Amino acid sequence: MKNALATWIDDDPKHNPKTLFKMLKASIGQERFGGMPCPTLKQVQHAVHYMRSKDILQKSTVPAAIEELMKWRLTDNVEDQVAHKPFVFGVEEEAGRFTLGDGGMQAFRVGLSTVELLRKYHAVVTANPMKTVICHMDTTFSTNVLGYPMFVFGYSDMAGSFHLLCVCITSQRTHADVAWLLRSLKEKFTSLLNYAWAPTRLMGDADKAQFLGMTNALQPELPLLEYLMCFFHCYDKRQGMTSEEWTSVTFDIYLLHMSTSEADLVNNMDTAHANWEGSRTLRKFRTYFFNTWLPYHAVYSTNRGPRFWKWQVFHSHRGCSYTNNPNEHFNRKLKDAIGRVKKHVPHLVQEVAKLVQEISTEATPWVQHPVQTERMKKYFKKLLASRRLRVNEVPRVRPVTWRVLHLPEEIAEGEQDEDIPR
What we know:
This protein is α+β, with helices and mostly antiparallel strands. It folds into three domains: about 1-55, no CATH class; about 60-220 and about 325-360, no CATH class; about 235-310 and about 380-385, no CATH class. The chain is built from 13 helices and nine strands. The chain has helices at about 1-10, 15-30, 40-55, 60-70, 115-125, 175-195, 210-215, 245-255, 260-275, 280-290, 325-335, 345-360, 375-385; strands spanning about 85-90, 90-95, 95-100, 110-115, 135-140, 150-155, 160-170, 200-205, 225-230. Strand 6 and strand 7 form a beta hairpin. This is MULE transposase domain-containing protein.
């Protein structure tokens, strides 16, 4: 019976003791064990716990993680590396073995990708020199027993579909972790493909860690790199508004999002500022919104350096994804792959590596032109019906002075990473 339990656990480590007990009971009913009596559920639970305590995949220790990572080590001769086989990057080596932090004073950081995923990105950028390829970064949680966050990094095509570049597991979510991811990925592009990775657009959340990680890791050498924000974050702080007020506010936010140029954005800012005058709650929200989510305006703003204001459609080509929705779809696929159960880190690495390999082998084309899907047409009609889109209007043009310049920021001692700026 123990051999049967061990085989079932090897076949699918996601099986819990109750499921294994039912499988064992069914096998005994078919007389596969020579008439032996069926153990109790508690006995099966103890047996499974003991087996897993001896299984290296069921231990969230540094030696166990290193043992699993060594299976995915990049070959010494890069030409011998299988294109679709995942490899570990961003981890230091000593005498041919990985050295990992324990997640305390020394950060735990692991990246997984394949040569084919990097080649595909390189081929897309080379074949489309006149198009801007937007990179996307998102963080997902509740994947492991230690509570480590997981970064999903990739890029989208002209139809808004997501294409994976790498998945990274870190013990924290700070600007240093984001900078490590970007620098490590850039180094792999250079060492494996002799390609100078130079993205011009990076879309993330309203996350101080992501913004500072980008500005400190890449922007000093890539001054044209811009941080775009998923505009869904603009819908915070609606407390106190009536239903009618919130309907009016969301209409204006959509107008701001659909601005077709810098001049159109300023025009829509004028409109929104006038519309949000009706009550004390609206005026309070207006002050917060203009100082947090919009570029500096001499009349409307007091914050001269807003970080998260580039969430309008004119910042990229038509058809590009303007939100991090593509990442969310992949995150759902990722959690389905791991069974929506918090894994021990070695087991999580194994499951993520399998998924990365599966994605790498899929010949998903990079769509070069916008595609009007039925879902998009349906959503467009829904927005029109709810008066959240204004079409066939020529924006008022006027001279605009933009005073926003993203420069590398010094991290003050004791400063904490926050999701939303205050």
